[in-house]
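*** Fold description ***
***
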Amino acid sequence: MCGIYGITSKDPEFVKNFIETCKHRGPDGDSVYTSEKVTLGHNLLSIMADPGKSTQPWHTPKGNVLVYNGEIFNYHQLKQTHGQFVDTTGCDTELLAWGLDTFGLDFIDRIDSMHGFAYYEIDKNQITLSRDHAGIKPVYYAEIEEGLVFGSEIKGMLDKVPGSRKLDELAVGCMSTTGINPLRNTFFTGIKKLLAGETIVYDVTNKKIIENKRVFIKPNSNKKFDPEEFRAMAQRSIKMASIGRRKIGVFLSGGLDSSLVAYELKNVTGDANTFTNRMEPNFVHPKDGDYNEDADCAAVLADSNSFNHTEVTITPDIVKQFWDDSIYYMEQPVYSPSLAMYCYTNKRLHDNDIVVTMAGDMGDEVLGGYPKYWKLRKEKLTSWTDVIDKWINRIKRPIKVYDKEILRNELLKCYPDDLWNPNDPIGSYMALDCVAQVPEEFLMRNDKYGMAYSMEGRFPLATKIFMQYCMNIHSDEKIGKEKGDTKLLTKIAYKNILPDVIINKMKTGWTVPLQHWWNKAGKENIPAMILEDWKKIYKIRT
């Protein structure tokens, strides 16, 4: 895992400073490519090959230049399929460079990856920016006087983009209404992001985007569920996601998804290093439940499968200590009281020599894990616009409600009706969550906090092959008729394999009882406070 940076001008000093600002993304090396028209930079976190064999920017067989952040999980399969490819490094960067030279952008459809890359075709004087199908790896960009500036993080380009420290009203309006911001606009005026599955081609000569391509995992709902096939697909995906030579650690929340990942990882590799959080002091609430229930369930699974298990204790003092860091590294505020806990937990994994992390994110969205999906049975969703309108009203207590008609129009621009299946409206809503909620609420958090401590985050349930397999199964098979009866595929497939305490556990979040720890228990508007603290840390004008 790495960091990519660039600008369409000869400006090596800027790119070197960008690299330095984001050096946490790659401690194994850095380098810069400069021409009269383009400057590209890269931080290296070596995962697949020796650092000496994987230095970037990478010069492709045709003389083009690539900077790449990610992993190609079907790397070994593609090498077998494309016998004409000559592997000299054992590094997937070499395969990606060859594939783009040979097949152009169509090669993106062939890779099952998490990626953010920039590919500079010198003869055409064009730069392609691409983000993976699930939005695991971020790519930010801005159109400025020099042309295009881009990178894996925002903080290094703020001073290059005029007006970027002014709050973007649309982005904040979306977050304050829906709890997340899945639009192209970031909170920093003028700085945008590639959406999940999006690829753009930029004409350096004429300073404009000339092509936009999207990859979608569609809710086809045309396949019947088979428990043995489901387990085989899960294990296949986890095996793909375990490639490389670095030590892997699993965020074990105690829920079904992370438990499945940890269990199958041990089957694949023979070992599982797992980490969970335990709250001290704990808080048991009549409505919210026991905040250490997840830790207790994780302990049962770890003990029964002989995992190398570590409990990370979270206290109010730790939350205070890591509060500012959690906001700084996140770059954009999100609707969560648990940011400091997530930030600190990543540090603890790093302290235990973990370089690659795994988590169960995307499982709830492709497998029907949220109670809201069960509740959608009562809704009449007859069009994609109905789905968008329902999604806009996804949270009960927004900070402030923005103009919903404007939000609807913007969301429709970002998420077209390619994801609409009239035979499975709930599946269509789940598909929207996959590309809107998951990248912005979960995957971005993992990238920011993991890379802050030089760790690569992977999500085996978010591979193309597993996501498409799950989205080919109708939501009726994932959600039962009884209240709260969700994620049936996993419960059926892993019954008598995972402990009953995990199979039968109600859905809970991996959260810290922050409001209950504070003197004004339950009364603080934490999302609003996060927004205000973020504005101070990044010196944002309103």
